[in-house]
Amino acid sequence: MSNPTERRERLKELYATSRGCVRCPQLAETRRQVVFGAGNADADLMFVGEAPGKHEDEQGLPFVGQAGKLLDQLLAEVGLARGDVFICNTLKCRPPGNRDPHPIEIDNCQGYLFDQVAYVRPKVVCTLGNFATKLLRGDQTGVTRVHGQEELRVIGTRAVRLYPLYHPAAALYTRAMLDVLRADFARIPELLALPEPDHPAPDAPPEPAVPEPEIAAEPGVAADPEPEPATAPQLGLF
Ligand code: URA
Fold first, then answer.
1. pTM listed for this prediction
2. What CATH number is attached to the domain comprising 72?
3. Is residue 79 part of a domain?
4. Is 88 in the pocket of ligand 1 (CB under 6 A)?
């Protein structure tokens, strides 16, 4: 599945599947919509935040509030724009009142993220804040100890350069943190210029972590739940 057109189609199908997700009953009940992620489907650089907030839940797009404005500014400072990158979150649904994601919710949602990595194939994945950093590093070390230190990690079947960063929301109100985030950001072009790491099983076709929508067992018997059509309107073109 190395063809970018095919990977983009898979990403669109995953988007359509995610829109009907009810794995986390509370989030499915309280969200306005699933915030799948947005940007370039063939990006070399992916950002993974925590979870949608109020504005993201309203607009269906990641990082559209104050933290998003700062992210845009930091991207511009290294010569990049949203259309160059893919931006998503650890959780695709807003936790009510912006509470922290629960561990079970992170577990329920991680398949979407792993499939996004498999389909977009970024070279560099920047985790923003503790939740994404802990999930994708696979341990409980906080971002304060590992920010700005790139490492090779395997996510699903893809080897990537993982680059933990402070969350822009944390940097909004703390000048010292903003300075550190900006300095860490300044190294992104250098990381993007490094050769792509070797992948563990280059020939094995990746198994989607999120199962494909079930096909009806008999003609005329609808699969339950009804999958969203892959042609569902798509936000934040990817
Ligand atoms: N914070 C996040 O982690 N993600 C968003 O999409 C917005 C704010």
1. 0.89
2. 3.40.470.10
3. yes
4. no
CA 119 to each of CA 89, 171, 174: distance values in angstroms, whole numbers, following the listed order: 15, 30, 35
Does residue 209 sit within a domain?
no
Q: Is residue 109 part of a domain?
A: yes
pLDDT at 2: 76
Residue 116 in any domain: the answer is yes
169 membership: H or E segment, kind and range: helix 168-171
| Ligand 1 contacts CB of residue 168 (under 6 A) | no
Which residue's alpha carbon is at the smallest distance from atom 8 of ligand 1?
63
Give residues with Cβ within 8 angstroms of 208, minimum separation 6: 10, 14, 111, 115, 118
pLDDT digits (tens, 9 = 90+) for 25-34: 999 999 999 9
The answer to whether residues 113 and 128 touch, using CB atoms and an 8 Å cutoff, is no
Rounded to the nearest whole angstrom, what is the distance from the C-alpha of residue 202 to the centroid of ligand 1? 32
Instruction: State which residues form the domain around 134.
Output: 4-194
State if residue 112 touches ligand 1 by the CB under 6 angstroms criterion.
no
Ligand 1 atom nearest the C-alpha of 61 is 6
Q: What is the pLDDT of residues 1-13, one digit of tens each?
A: 679 999 999 999 9
pLDDT above 70 as % of the chain: 87
| CA distances from residue 75 to 84, 125, 131 in whole angstroms, order as listed | 10, 14, 21
Please state the rounded mean pLDDT for residues 47-75: 98
40 pocket-lining for ligand 1 (C-beta < 6 Å): no
N-term to C-term CA, the chain: 17
Cα-to-centroid distance, 60 and ligand 1 (Å): 11
